[in-house]
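Final report, Chapter 2: Outcomes

The project's central promise was a pipeline that accepts a single protein chain and returns its three-dimensional structure in a standardized token representation, suitable for archiving and comparison. That pipeline is now operational. To close this chapter, we reproduce one record exactly as it appears in the project archive, with the input sequence first and the structure output second.
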Amino acid sequence: MKRNFPLIVVFALLFGGLLSACNFAAPAAQAPDLNGTEWQLTALNGVPLSENIRITLRFEEGLAGGQAPCNGYGASYVQDGSALTFDQVVSTLMYCEGGMDYEAEYLATLALVKSFQLENNVLTLLDENGAAVLVFGLPQPAPEASVASSALEGTEWQLTSLNGAPLPEKVHITLRFENGEVRGRAACNIYNGVYSQDSTALSFGQGVERTEMWCEDDEFMAYEDNYLAVFAQVKSFQLDSDVLSLLDENGAVILVYSLSQVFVPRPPDEFPLVIETVIVTIVPPIATKVP
């Protein structure tokens, strides 16, 4: 018995060591896939975002984008585990008061991101030193406010993003609300329709109609088709200073506009010219007798 005792001790130590080794070799938790997720910025470089500033971010099949305070933006992204980088960050070029500084800093910071952490519905983007530069939470509805039934009447807008993606270069699309009707210029055609607003509820009936001009660029025509088709999905809107967002029945933002500052003509060599014929009737003066 005395000779077997040391062997029992040795086996016990070896068995305990194997268990300990198994514990240390346990694989780390796999980083979640960001594809298909949507977020709202809460802090920028350690500073909480102002309540009147709204910035969103969505990941979709290698493309990231959203709405900054003034412009729609987009970028490509690559995720490898918890490693994350953004490339080719672009945005529309509208100007608005009170949000441009936030927007410029945010877009510049995206290019610094190297990794991320996701915990308890909080997405934290980190730079190469592991410092948190951007913090996001789940999207929150805009604060409810009393909106006059005529809030949109007489206003004119320029589209900045469609379904979360900024407009292609050289595409200019406008929207005007007037006398219960909407009208504007799409990528190739003039369009019009009727609208109904009740507080923040908004609808365009069965959609809008357009002229039947043709563009040489098929990409412009396809973009116009997608844009006009979205009108039938609109159920409500948010009006935040110089930014108008149109939402679908689920509250998702599908169209974003900036307040139109100046008329943007379409390049004549790239878009068809629409000529409106005006008939003028000339009435001859009535002869009068002079006493």
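Archive annotation: Confidence is low (pLDDT under 50) at residues 8-15, 18-26, 262-291.
This record, like all others produced under the grant, will remain available to the consortium after the project formally closes.
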